[in-house]
Design brief:
The protein has about 70 residues and is an all-alpha fold. About 90% of the residues lie in helices and about 0% in strands.
């Protein structure tokens, strides 16, 4: 019975410390989350477009020589 009680105390102290740490976190505002998410999506679209054009150009060059 003592082992079970000790495990519960360790679990409770861990959860209490997690909760206290989460209270210290500064969470981003929804406005900033939307702004940074859109910036990330736009960057990914630009980068994927660049690689698509690069792929087409290289495949065209490959077809010319082979």
């Amino acid at each position: 019975m003592k082992k079970n009680n000790k495990k519960n105390k360790n679990k409770n102290s861990f959860l209490k410390s997690v909760i206290s740490e989460l209270k210290l976190v500064t969470w981003a505002e929804p406005k900033n989350i939307i702004k940074y998410s859109l910036a990330t999506i736009v960057f990914c679209l630009i980068l994927s477009g660049y690689f698509a054009i690069l792929n087409l150009a290289l495949s065209f060059i490959k077809e010319m020589f082979l």
